[in-house]
Design brief:
The protein has eleven helices and 16 strands. By secondary structure, the chain is of the alpha/beta class. A six-stranded mixed beta sheet has the order 12-9-13-16-14-15, with helices on both faces. β10 and β11 form a beta hairpin.
């Protein structure tokens, strides 16, 4: 397990080092969200901010990257907008606007009173709750207010109504994943080959990990899931390659399975890790790494074509950040499932800057199924019956997460 916690070298990437053509911002982009993943409003706001920063750095923006940050007057309409063609943004919203906040650094305007609405003068993208809407014409600014084209009024209201329906949570209901909506799960049996993992009580961690993963695969396939392994036999896979396997097949979840060990032999129990934010890796820099190793399916993100590399970096960064929140929920459900099946001691769900999770573009967790250094727990982990109970708990957590997200 120790190797999974090593921290890679810091990726240093200035936002002004990215270049993004205006047509990539205001063109075919409609909704930068993957299937079955509702993006958090705070990260959607970050998405808009990132786009603005990139626009600032573009050659046809201001004079250079060292110049002043643009002010709203840069996008100001020459005169009062024609009331027959333009509509005040506040009047276009289906709820009374409680406040309008402007970020002077990025020119983002946030309307509150209902679902948060974020707009930027000069852009055609408006965030309506968790949905991105592409307008027919860019937003304009005049005399302290934003205006949109009247023909876009219905788009704004429709997006907010749809977002409100998505926000309604269905409680106490379990759903079966249909054949048309199969989820793809990547299971990662930790270690392998020359990397034996932890060794205690004549047990190799790598062997336990693979056996449990095989049981999980069988159970998930019975439930209608599609399952892939990072390794299906006793071979070594580089740590950084494991999440990239999930990224390349566009997995819906990534679950790494491990067994624990410590020196005293007295500690026991199950714990599940999810990736915590590493402050040295901002969303754009982490997205840049992901964008270099796999391609986007344009249709999955509401795009009509493969976007430019810099736009891919931003989208991936947004997804990675949102996946961290989704991962916390997945970790809790898997932990709950394993404890219910095994009655093992609970060591809880924990955040961790784990390399094997950091660059996964989907909800990703690492399950420590028990301590092979603990003699009592090692005996249990060596039996197929206990391995199947652990596998049932992991599969149950994955299925419950998928049902809630569907």
């Amino acid at each position: 397990m120790n190797d999974e916690r090593r921290t890679p070298k810091e990726v240093r990437l200035s936002a002004c080092g990215l270049r993004l053509a205006a047509e990539d911002v205001c063109g075919p982009l409609t909704c930068p969200r993957p299937q079955a993943m509702g993006l958090q409003p705070v990260f959607l706001l970050q998405f808009i901010v990132c786009l603005v920063l990139l626009m600032i750095c573009d050659n046809d923006g201001l004079a250079g990257t060292d110049g002043p940050v643009p002010v709203v007057s840069h996008y100001t309409h020459a005169g009062p907008p024609d009331s027959g063609a333009w509509l005040n943004m506040a009047a276009a919203l289906p709820f009374p606007v409680a406040s309008v906040q402007r970020d002077p650094l990025t020119n983002t305007f946030t309307y509150s009173g209902g679902q948060p609405v974020v707009a930027v003068p000069g852009f055609t993208i408006v965030m309506c709750g968790s949905k991105a809407v592409t307008l027919s014409r860019p937003v304009i600014y005049y005399d302290g207010s934003l205006f949109i084209a009247r023909e876009d009024h219905a788009l704004i209201r429709s997006a907010l109504a749809s977002d409100a329906r998505l926000a309604v949570k269905t409680a106490g209901r379990t759903r079966t994943i249909s054949a048309a909506g199969k989820r793809l799960i990547v299971l990662d049996p930790g270690h392998g080959g020359h990397d034996k993992g932890a060794i205690a009580n004549r047990i190799y961690e790598k062997t336990i990990n693979l056996k449990i993963a095989r049981y999980v695969k069988s159970l998930l396939e019975e439930k209608g899931f599609i399952v892939r392994f990072t390794r299906s036999d006793d071979r070594f896979i580089e740590l950084d390659d494991r999440p990239q396997i999930a990224n390349q097949v566009q997995a819906d979840m990534f679950v790494s399975i491990h067994a624990n060990a410590e020196r005293t032999g007295r500690v026991s129990g199950v714990e599940t890790f999810y990736c915590d934010t590493d402050r040295r890796f901002n969303p754009i820099s982490r997205g840049r790494v992901a964008a270099q190793t796999c391609r986007l399916d344009p249709r999955k993100f509401g795009l009509t074509r493969e976007p430019a590399c810099d736009l891919r970096s931003i989208i991936y960064g947004l997804i990675i950040e949102d996946s961290r929140y989704q991962s916390r929920r997945l970790a809790a459900l898997i932990q709950e499932g394993v404890l219910r099946q095994t009655s093992a001691d609970s060591r809880g769900t924990k955040p961790g800057a784990l390399r094997v999770l950091r660059f996964a573009n989907c909800p990703a967790v690492l399950v420590e199924v028990g301590f092979i250094s603990n003699r009592r727990e090692a005996k249990l982990l060596a039996t197929s019956s206990y391995q199947k109970r652990i596998a049932a708990g992991i599969a149950s957590g994955i299925a419950n997460f998928a049902a809630r997200e569907q």
